[in-house]
Amino acid sequence: MSSIIFEALPYSVRIGETDYKIDADFRLMAKYEQSLLTGDRGDKEAMTKIIVDTLFRWLGNQLPKVERLNEAIDKMWWFYRCGEPLDSRINSSGTKHTKRLYDYDIDSALIVSAFADTYGIDLVSSKMHWWQFKAYFAGLNENTRFVKVMSYRGMDLSQFKGKMRSFYADMQKMYALPEVHQTPMTLKERDEQFKKRMMQRATNRN
Asked: For 72-122, what is each residue's pLDDT tens digit?
C-alpha cells in the first residue's frame, strides 16, 4: 500500500488531460472485489459489465473517451490495489489466485463487529476511504470472531492431527464459503469486451 501516512489519500485522478473526482468510499471497491471474486469470470460479458459499471461510478457517473479506456481502467485498478504495483500473482480481473478467506456479503455482520471491537468505528455510517478501510482491515484484532473465522478458512489441516484436526475441520466446514466458478479472462479479451461495452454506453447516451 502507498504510504497513507506521508501522502494524501487520492480523491481524484487524471486520465489524459482530464481530472476526475472519484468515488473513494470503501463500499464501491468492496462491491467491485466481491463481484469479481464471486462472479463467473468465464462469462466475459458479465465481467465486463461489472468493470464498466464500477468505472462509471468511480469516475463520478461518467466515462472517458474510448481511446482513454485502457488508461482509465488501469487507474481504477491502481486505486483498487491501494497504489501498489501490479503483482505477478494478480490475474486479469485484478485479484490474486489465493484461497478466499472472507466474503463481504456473508461476513458483513462479522466485519462490522470487528471494526467496532478493534477501532470503535461504525462501518454502517462511515464514509471511509477505500485505502483507509484496507489499512484498518489488515490490522483487525486477532481476537475478533471475524479474524478467527478467516484463520479457520485458511488453515492447512495436514498440519494437525487427532482432535485438533477434527476441530479445525469442523470449523472449516461450518464457515466454508460457497464454491465459485473461476475462469480467467485474458487482457486482450478484457480490452475487447470493455471497448464493446464502452461503445454500447456511448451509443445509448446519444
From this structure: 999 999 999 999 876 644 444 444 546 889 999 999 999 999 999 999 999
Q: Which helix (H) or strand (E) holds 19?
A: strand 18-21
pLDDT tens per residue across span 18-47: 999 999 999 999 999 999 888 766 677 788
- Write out the three cell numbers for 28: 464501491
Which distant-in-sequence residues (6+ apart) come within 8 Å of 73 by Cβ? Answer: 51, 55, 194
Say if residues 150 and 101 touch (Cβ distance below 8 Å). yes
Q: What is the per-residue DSSP string for 108-169? A: HHHHHHHHHHHH---TTT---BHHHHHHHHHT--TTSHHHHHHHHHH--GGG--HHHHHHHH
**The C-alpha cell of 150 is what?**
478467516
Q: What are phi and psi of 90, to 5 degrees?
A: -90, 135
Q: Contact 129/9 with Cβ under 8 angstroms?
A: yes
Show Cβ contacts of residue 58 under 8 Å, excluding neighbours closer than 6 positions.
22, 23, 28, 76, 79
Inter-axis angle of helices 69-80 and 26-38, nearest 10: 100
Distance between CA atoms of residues 96 and 197, nearest Å: 25
d(CA 47, CA 35): 8
Domain ranges of the chain: 12-98+182-205, 108-174
SS3 label, residue 40: coil
Q: Determine the residue type at 74.
A: D
pTM of the model: 0.83
Average pLDDT across the chain, whole number: 85
Amino acid at 11: Y
